[in-house]
Amino acid sequence: MKHNIKTTNIFLTPSITDYVDKRLSHLDKFISPEEKETVMCYVEIGKTTNHHKTGDIFRAELNLHIGGEALRAELEKDDLYAAIDGVGDEMAREIKSHKTKKTGLVKRSGAKLKAFVKSFTGGSEE
Questions:
Q1: pTM of this structure
Q2: HSE of 86 in the Cβ direction (CA atoms, 13 Å)?
Q3: CB-count exposure of residue 112 (10 Å: 0-12, 13-18, 19+)
Q4: 62 DSSP β-pair partners
């Protein structure tokens, strides 16, 4: 999976890049081997604003393009690494949900086709 990292109001350090790479590699198991070369992931991390009085609020956002469809996950936390962890888990749920919807559509279509064929054969399954 190819990815592009963008930062807002923070500097991109090698440790942050390595951590994002590690969390994105977790998502590879949900993507089929045929799609891995075409999947593009856009990652945006950073501080939401510079004017908070009591600590920083970090935001992580993932935009994943799989098979012509876009999946998106976004999360804000007090810790940058916690935000990256949380958004990775949320994206995993999004991918699973997307695959379930796709499978459900195929099964429903098959059931409708079966009912249509049954109506012409008189209801027997011989």
A1: 0.75
A2: 15
A3: exposed
A4: 43, 73
Q: Is 94 in a helix, a strand, or coil?
A: helix
Distance CA 124, CA 106 (A): 23
Residue 92: both structure tokens together: 């995993």
Q: Looking at this protein, which amino acid is placed at residue 55?
A: G
- Residue-range domains of the chain with CATH: 2-91 (3.30.160.100)
Is the Cβ–Cβ distance between 45 and 20 less than 8 Å?
Answer: yes
Contact 64, 91 (CB under 8 A): yes
Helix (H) or strand (E) holding 19: helix 14-25
With contact defined as beta carbons under 8 Å apart, do 28 and 1 qualify? Answer: yes
Distance in angstroms (rounded) separating the CA atoms of residues 70 and 63: 7
Mind listing the pLDDT tens digit of every residue in the chain (126 residues)? 788 999 988 899 999 999 999 988 888 888 877 777 788 889 999 988 776 656 778 999 999 988 788 999 999 998 999 999 999 999 999 988 888 777 777 777 888 888 888 888 876 554
